[in-house]
Amino acid sequence: MSKKRIVVLYGGRADEHPISCISAASVLNAIDTDRFEPIPVGITKDGKWIVNGEDPRGWNLDSGVLPEVTITEGAKMVVLDVALGQDGFFAQNGNELESLGHVDAVFPVLHGPYGEDGTVQGLLEMMNVPYVGCGVLASAACMDKHYTKVLLAAAGIPVAPGITIDARDFDAASEFAANGPALLDQVKAAGLEYPLFVKPSRAGSSFGVTKVENAEDADALAAAVFEASKHDWRILIEQGINAREIECAVLCPKAGDKPQVSWPGEIVLDSRSTDADSFYDFDSKYMDSSASHVEVPANLPDELLAKVRETAAKAFVAVDGAGLSRVDTFVTADGEVMVNEINTMPGFTSISMYPKAWEATGIAYSDLITTLIEGVLR
């Protein structure tokens, strides 16, 4: 049986560029090379697609250095011919175009805007190329936390109380300080309780997220909104939920099939033993392996674990999910389950929740990759 040729896309223009690189390294190191021939295609931070760049298989975060796709000696630009579909992938060699051969599917291991938001998915749809993961609508809607909440609420799924603001009208020169009182008024009008979490609507990996603890602190609220505005003009101000953050991995290799759900897991912040106000920021997720650990299944009663799994599956269907997603929930002390967000291309690093949850549920990492790819092959 001939091997299926799979383009693995990584890097990209988003802030999550280095995490995509690490995720792709993990995928490329674990992919079943008896079944698949991976074709690594990197995307630089300014959007150039290349092959034959630095081998991502050697990337990791052990050194504390964030990897990046760059144009190295020997790298070739990738050119796409949309009309040729699965045969439309080429490498530019001087004035000549060299075919990369027939591509059976694409695995877009891309996080954040310009990769996880429906843009690449739309391109591949136009080329009629099979790809792993959610389609255009689910990718776009789940990338935007505001519209995720709109869809979930419409489906009767509880979400955290909050408001959405447009920062384009704010005065960046003053770092939004002059807008602090008006922001406080909006928070009060919405009846939001502190602490608040201020976050960009379309970003991931905790970029631009700030915790605001003190009521009446207009400067702190304005500074948090300014920080979030560096990543998106649409900003969420959400009421902090006194709850445990429980994550559930969803798997649906073939679009339209009934989604499978993993055992729910929990990120336990070890730093909370010394800092009760800590939260799961970028460094805790990726740069400091001692800051947290994963527990799967989460230490919850069986009926609550079942409720989280049911909610995750319902949320996945509500946004028209396909392939895979990680549904992040809040579980309160009285047993309420609400959805925080849905990640349509969750991290695939060695310490990421998605593969760990499926491993604990009975699907090994390499088998998970195989299942996802085979689900989209024609």
How are the elements arranged and paired?
Layout: E1 4-11, H1 17-30, E2 36-43, E3 49-51, E4 76-80, E5 89-93, E6 96-99, E7 105-108, H2 119-127, H3 136-143, H4 145-154, E8 162-166, H5 180-189, E9 196-200, E10 210-212, H6 218-229, E11 234-239, E12 243-252, E13 260-261, E14 265-269, H7 282-287, E15 292-295, H8 302-318, E16 323-332, E17 337-343, H9 353-361, H10 365-374
Parallel strand pairs: 1-2, 1-7
Antiparallel strand pairs: 2-3, 3-4, 4-5, 5-6, 8-11, 9-10, 9-11, 12-13, 12-14, 12-16, 14-15, 16-17
The end-to-end distance, rounded to whole angstroms, is 15 Å
Q: Which stretches are low in confidence, meaning pLDDT under 50 for 5 or more residues running?
A: none
Under the CATH scheme, the architecture of the largest domain is 3-Layer(aba) Sandwich
Instruction: Give the helix level as a range of percent.
Output: 25-40%
CATH class of the largest domain: Alpha Beta
Total count of strands: 17
Q: What's the mean pLDDT score?
A: 92
In spatial order, strands of the major sheet run: 6-5-4-3-2-1-7
| Structure class | alpha+beta
Task: List the helices and strands in order.
Answer: EHEEEEEEHHHEHEEHEEEEHEHEEHH
The major pleated sheet works out as: 7 strands, mixed
The gross shape turns out to be globular
How many discrete structural domains? 3
